Description:
The protein is an alpha/beta fold.
Amino acid sequence: xxxxxxxxxxxxxxxxxxxxxxxxxxxxxxxxxxxxxxxxxxxxxxxxxxxxxxxxxxxxxxxxxxxxxxxxxxxxxxxxxxxxxxxxxxxxxxxxxxxxxxxxxxxxxxxxxxxxxxxxxxxxxxxxxxxxxxxxxxxxxxxxxxxxxxxxxxxxxxxxxxxxxxxxxxxxxxxxxxxxxxxxxxxxxxxxxxxxxxxxxxxxxxxxxxxxxxxxxxxxxxxxxxxxxxxxxxxxxxxxxxxxxxxxxxxxxxxxxxxxxxxxxxxxxxxxxxxxxxxxxxxxxxxxxxxxxxxxxxxxxxxxxxxxxxxxxxxxxxxxxxxxxxxxxxxxxxxxxxxxxxxxxxxxxxxxxxxxxxxxxxxxxxxxxxxxxxxxxxxxxxxxxxxxxxxxxxxxxxxxxxxxxxxxxxxxxxxxxxxxxxxxxxxxxxxx
Length: 432
């Protein structure tokens, strides 16, 4: 059955759409932190549709809200007043941490970052953008143009002139040997040097507090706040891309930027807030959000049905304090993976329920040589043992672990045991 669907998929969809596994699986249904494929196999889900199933699969509050709204009206567009959209935006503004916040809803993180770039460039007419090395911000023409990860950037054409700065990852950074304080100083010096090479008209720096596709990498806490001081002095905006870090996933904070002791000018979000519904958005102070010199609409952004579902999901997240659960359960995985000391693991990093495991060739030093084939083997090994994880990193050698935020301690222990076993199985015998 899966092979037949695979053949149909390859016949009608683009060849560049990536699929996991040598024998791709069709996910048929889910409940809680588990999913089942079309053949009836059950998996513990540690990737959640690329960090999108934030609370749990088939969350009753969301399915009931979507069903109730669908029975009334599914779609209207922003040309009409939309009560679910307004109620959702009010709640997002409340938790945003952005002063005088306004919210614009989109259908994805890509579109949210597009809108943020538009707001920033329209403000001063600048077409120069700063981004972090190893970054990923979406698959549209403009967001590919600011993506610092060649594996996800199929063209060098761009509406922007983009400059890439250090600070987004530690393990493979030339500053990796430095203390946190000196690492931040080195990155700030790099930022200032890059800025001196521009003509002074820079619209914004866009940065993920923890890089998602890049392999869950980050610099030390405070590095983006130090950048913010430099940017403020030069009247450059800071866009915090919270598509993967937002909504309490890191455990310690509700937003990733809150670890950096400064407040961004614009925040983008998506993925988890919709719990699988097509939802993204931009948060900015009214002075920035209202600054576009032309009219605009959104046909599908903030539709009644997606807004109703996202609002139910966000309220469930807050009422059940899933951020605190991420802080409590995440260390079971993070500490357990570090304690396993697998020879193929070069680095274990992350916060809360956002954990990266970088695989390297055993005995190849620090940082070790990337081992994408081993990552593929572990990915397959986890699936065979009933666990779904993701993969990323510039070299495709990083396991991405990001379960729904309602993960229980018992499920974390179960997933950890599978991960350790799969890592052990993938380790070359001479390195065992």
